[in-house]
Amino acid sequence: MSDKQESLLKLAELFKILGDPTRLKIVELLLENEMCVNHIAETMGMGQSAISHQLRVLRQARLVTYRKDGKTAYYSLNDDHVECLVRMGMEHVAHQ
User: Fold this and answer.
1) Which residue from 15, 33, 79, 92 puts its CA 20 to 30 A from 59's CA?
2) How far is the C-alpha of 63 from the C-alpha of 17, rounded, in Å?
3) How many C-beta neighbours within 10 Å does residue 86 have?
4) CA atoms of 83 and 89, how far apart (whole Å)
5) Rounded to an integer, what distance in angstroms lies between the CA atom of residue 61 and that of residue 44?
6) Contact 36, 72 (CB under 8 A)
7) Largest Cα–Cα distance of the chain, in whole Å?
8) What whole-number percentage of the chain has pLDDT above 90?
9) 12-52, pLDDT tens digit by residue?
């Protein structure tokens, strides 16, 4: 497989991960500031275990990261590229 083909497969997987409305909403929340699982779950009206599962998927895709403060994990976007992807996508869908 060529490097270009491998890159396209990775990009398709990234878009698949971001194509889930729940994960996209979590990313949108994290655009504003870091949050713990409890706060994300409360804001979205979902259970903590469901949010934790989605955060695990986002972490594995290197879209979010976390820091520990005692027993609490605070999640944030992994880097500026994630913010750029989401903001450009939002601009694209708004521009019709």
Assistant:
1) 92
2) 10
3) 18
4) 10
5) 21
6) yes
7) 46
8) 92
9) 999 999 999 999 999 999 999 999 999 999 999 999 999 99
Confidence category of residue 1, pLDDT binned at 50, 70, 90: confident
Bridge partner residues of 74 (DSSP): 36, 67
User: How many CB atoms neighbour CB 1 within 10 A?
Assistant: 7
Calpha distance 83→66 (Å, rounded): 16
CB-based contact 44:25 (threshold 8 Å): yes
CA dist., res. 55 & res. 22, Å (int): 10
Residue labelled with tokens 């994630």: 82
E strand or H helix at 3, and its extent? Answer: helix 3-18
